[in-house]
Protein: SEA domain-containing protein
Amino acid sequence: MKAGTVAYTGTIKLKQSWLDQFEDANSAESKILTGNIEQAFKRVFKNEPKFVNAEIVGFREGLVKHNPNTIRKVIAPFILTFKNDVNGIKEKLKNMVQNLGRLDDMPVYKHSLQIAEYGHSPAAEKAQTVNETSKGNHGNEDEKRSAINVPNGGVDPYLKGIFSQISM
Structure:
């Protein structure tokens, strides 16, 4: 990640039927859908002066609850990059997705958006709070502990791997 920027990682489930071609990032279908989603994010944040970039980092296959397993949909992991000191990003996206069921003009499932500041998931923040609270009670024992049973520090391992590749 570039100095002076903050990244948000997440996933969103599209009302787009899954095609096996989405597994190949070089396929025409994958490139078109990637471009469409990235453009949708750019339109959403066009008036946000601290917006830097939106990147789709592949696709995963997902199912729709309460429907037959034959209905396969697209889950799109993404990275949004902003200049430091940006506010209201998660709220803006959540409001749009939950109220409209859309990401700009793209139909999405209303409760499918998962987003967190990179390295700051609710589980990691809770672990940090627990660690800070217990410092006074345990002295140097705090140095022996890691993030209190939070796997991977609360970061999605898939996104962490992708993010580490692009930040080199």
